[in-house]
């Protein structure tokens, strides 16, 4: 039914489009080929099927390379460092690598293209993307990417298990360890908690704990701030949840294992990406028995400051198909395409889609979808894209932070010692 | 007859010393150019890169041997060096011992020989990526079948790749599972080419099986084993795929071998100069091990 509703709405959008489309020549680059280098992500998986529609509209062929994130980054680095024209469009996380990629000159500045009336469809409406998203994608005036989604870690819990054990839904972040202890006492055979333990993946899920308990990755004067008491408390809570209540082998886990554990019903709580919502509810029963919300605020601090990031599409500075690539970017981030992408669990960065009738109808069909959508609105409003101490060597900084958490989980250091040792390493990256 | 023999012995060196003709040079040129393009130039470039400070977005700066000085003072390098050597020696020892045993067992096998050899080949025909993915699924302490089997058998469950104390051993066992059949087939080929009369004479003289193995089989197989050791060493010292897929060098830095460290420094942290210095050092270690084995091969030749 949902598919029919969305198809009808998309068709209506298309019927309304001709008046505008007549003014814009989508077939100006007919016969060309654009090559996309994409991270394996719900957006890319959906694009595999949808790109045929782009070819039908523009006559531009699409060649797509999709890799898991590590391989994707390695290939991108190799191609861009070699100034290769083999890739025209690539996915990028400006909050992670924006500063470095910009310095390297890898991004085509999209601002002139957006402003160019001959090259840009009249109904494109760049301002329709959320202000935060546009801000993350703009680096010192250079528009590096067009946003394709927004995401952030959310708190998922099994409502049925909580109900069976008579445990109330956590209202504050401090309630999570207490709920974990009660769950263990209630049913020793039920797994309690899972979260990312793999070094580089940890900070994404850890940050909410640090922020909500009043901590920060930076001191007021801009130095690394993991060693501050409130930050230490955040690290301690995250690491202890993994250590005391996490699955065996958690230190090699990233979202794939965490989602598998939640989907299979082996755990009762996690803090994992909003992106994985569609995958989670595909498991039998999960759409009915899980709850989802933003990580609860700190009890004493009242702070709720989750992570929110957005992948974007960039045009390679070395591309020889810039105009064809720009047509692809416009189409892939259009209202019409984003409306359809919601079915794949891709949270739309366009306000018109997020507040539009199709998305609202889809979200209202099930309470869990409504909760997910509300959580996304909230992280869009209150979230931060910063989840490492101040530096532009971001991947390295996140690795150091993840390593500190691992040391605590392994019992090799106290949270304070690990955090202070990490600060010393992080200071060298500034 | 004697004159002919003398003429023959004189003629051969003369032919060997003959200067290459122009057409010979042209025929060899493509191979030389290919070797230069694919081996010498990239290696030379890597050495040049290792003498620079190169980061994405920054200007490359010649810094002489600073990357190598940094490497000597870097705890992560020494940790990677130790892990590389431990993984190499552990895996090599396991594969040579088990491979020799399996190879000799195969030599005695009469029935279904072709089928068994085909089955044995299958592990090393698998791409390392597949092995890594299988390891993730099978050895995950919570989700994997390995711990389920241990539990069913009433044995204690293990953390495998998730325990810093067992991760290298687990990786070594994975590699041993994959590559022992390869060593076994080399040993089998070597064993079947040995002169039979030596074994028959030893048997007639009353040598027991262990004595025959220790005093005859092993010394005669030594050059074959060294060849197998060289082939496996080159792979083991630059071991990468399975570790990267399963642990990415963790938990902590417990499986960050030199190759993993160099990859992370280069492709994740964009320190190309330092990563190149690490790779040049690793290449020197591989080259050193090959030279050592080449000497050893000469020493055990018969």
Overview of the molecule:
Chain A has 430 residues and is α/β, with parallel strands linked by helices. Helices cover 49% and strands 10% of the residues of chain A. In chain A, the strands form three sheets. Chain A has a five-stranded mixed beta sheet, with helices on both faces. In chain A, strands 8-9-7-10 form a four-stranded mixed beta sheet, sandwiched between helices. Chain B has one domain (66-300): MetI-like fold. Chain B is globular, with a radius of gyration of 25 Å. With 302 residues, chain B is an all-alpha fold. Chain B has 13 helices and two strands; from the N terminus they run ααββααααααααααα. Chain B has helices at 2-16, 22-50, 66-72, 75-108, 113-125, 128-139, 145-152, 167-192, 196-204, 209-237, 241-246, 258-268, 272-300; strands at 52-53, 61-62. Classes of the chains: A alpha/beta (430), B mainly alpha (302). At the A-B interface, α4, α5, α12 and α20 of A face α12 of B.
Proportion of helical residues of chain A:
40-55%
Largest interface: A-B, 37 and 30 residues
CATH domain topology of the largest domain in chain A? D-Maltodextrin-Binding Protein, domain 2
Kindly, what is the distance between the CA atoms of the first and last residues of chain B, rounded to a whole number of angstroms? Answer: 33 Å
CATH architecture of the largest domain in chain A: 3-Layer(aba) Sandwich
Assigned CATH superfamily of chain B:
MetI-like
Cα gyration radius of chain B (Å): 25 Å
């Amino acid at each position: 039914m949902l598919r029919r509703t969305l198809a009808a709405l998309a068709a209506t959008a298309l019927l309304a489009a001709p008046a505008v489309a007549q003014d814009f020549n989508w077939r100006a680059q007919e016969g060309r080929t654009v090559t996309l280098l994409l991270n394996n992500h719900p957006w890319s998986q959906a694009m595999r099927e949808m790109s045929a529609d782009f070819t039908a509209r523009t006559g531009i062929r699409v060649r797509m390379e999709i890799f898991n994130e590590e391989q994707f980054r390695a290939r991108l680095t190799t191609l861009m460092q070699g100034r290769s024209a083999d890739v025209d469009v690539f996915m990028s996380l400006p909050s992670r690598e924006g500063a470095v990629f910009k310095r390297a000159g890898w991004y085509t500045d999209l601002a002139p293209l957006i402003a160019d009336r001959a090259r840009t469809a009249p109904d494109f409406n760049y301002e329709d993307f959320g202000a935060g998203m546009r801000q993350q994608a703009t680096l010192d005036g250079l528009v590096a990417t067009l946003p394709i989604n927004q995401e952030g870690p959310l708190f998922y819990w099994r409502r049925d298990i909580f109900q069976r054990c008579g445990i109330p839904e956590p209202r504050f972040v401090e309630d999570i360890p207490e709920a974990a202890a009660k769950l263990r006492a209630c049913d020793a055979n039920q797994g309690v908690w899972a979260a990312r333990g793999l070094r580089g993946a940890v900070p994404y899920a850890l940050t909410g704990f640090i922020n909500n308990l009043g901590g920060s990755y930076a001191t007021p004067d801009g130095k690394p701030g993991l060693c501050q008491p409130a930050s230490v408390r955040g690290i301690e809570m995250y690491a202890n949840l993994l250590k005391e209540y996490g699955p065996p082998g958690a230190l090699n886990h990233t979202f794939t294992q965490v989602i598998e554990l939640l989907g299979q019903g082996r755990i009762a709580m996690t803090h994992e990406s909003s992106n994985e919502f569609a995958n989670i509810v595909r498991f039998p029963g999960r759409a009915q028995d899980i709850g989802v919300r933003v990580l609860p605020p700190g009890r004493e601090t009242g702070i709720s400051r989750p992570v929110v990031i957005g992948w974007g599409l960039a045009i390679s500075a070395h591309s020889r198909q810039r105009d064809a690539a720009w047509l692809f970017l416009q189409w892939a981030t259009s209202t019409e395409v984003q409306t359809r992408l919601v079915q794949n669990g891709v949270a739309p960065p366009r306000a018109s889609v997020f507040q539009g009738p199709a998305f609202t109808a889809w979200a209202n069909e099930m309470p869990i979808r409504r909760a997910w959508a509300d959580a996304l609105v909230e992280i869009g409003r209150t979230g931060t894209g910063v989840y490492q101490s101040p530096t532009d060597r971001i991947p390295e900084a996140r690795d150091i932070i993840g390593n500190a958490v691992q040391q605590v989980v392994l019992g090799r250091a106290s949270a304070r010692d690990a955090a202070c040792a990490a600060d010393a390493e992080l200071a060298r990256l500034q | 007859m004697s004159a002919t023999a003398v003429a023959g012995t004189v003629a051969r060196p003369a032919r060997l010393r003959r200067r290459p003709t122009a057409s010979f040079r042209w025929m060899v040129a493509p191979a030389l150019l290919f070797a230069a393009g694919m081996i010498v130039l990239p290696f030379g470039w890597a050495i040049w890169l290792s003498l620079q400070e190169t980061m994405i977005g920054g200007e490359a700066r010649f810094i002489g041997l600073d990357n190598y000085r940094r490497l000597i003072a870097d705890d992560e390098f020494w940790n990677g060096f130790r892990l590389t050597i431990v993984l190499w020696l552990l895996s090599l020892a396991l594969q040579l011992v088990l491979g020799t045993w399996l190879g000799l067992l195969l030599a005695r096998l009469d029935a279904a020989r072709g089928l068994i050899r085909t089955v044995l080949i299958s592990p090393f025909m698998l791409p390392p990526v597949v092995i890594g993915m299988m390891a993730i699924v099978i050895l995950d302490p919570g989700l994997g079948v390995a711990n389920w089997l241990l539990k069913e058998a009433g044995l204690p469950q293990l953390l495998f790749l998730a325990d810093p104390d067992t991760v290298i051993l687990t990786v070594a066992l994975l590699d041993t599972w994959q590559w022992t059949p390869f060593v076994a087939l080399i040993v089998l080929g070597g064993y079947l080419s040995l002169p039979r009369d030596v074994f028959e004479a030893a048997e007639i003289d009353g040598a027991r099986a262990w004595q025959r193995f220790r005093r005859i089989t092993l010394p005669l197989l030594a050059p074959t084993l060294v060849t197998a050791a060289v082939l496996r060493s080159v792979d083991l010292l630059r071991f990468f795929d399975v570790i990267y897929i399963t642990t990415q060098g963790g938990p902590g830095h417990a499986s960050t071998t030199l190759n993993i460290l160099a990859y992370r420094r280069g492709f994740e942290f964009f320190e190309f100069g330092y990563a190149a210095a690490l790779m040049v050092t690793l290449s020197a270690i591989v080259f050193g091990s090959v030279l050592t084995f080449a000497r050893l091969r000469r020493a055990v030749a018969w």
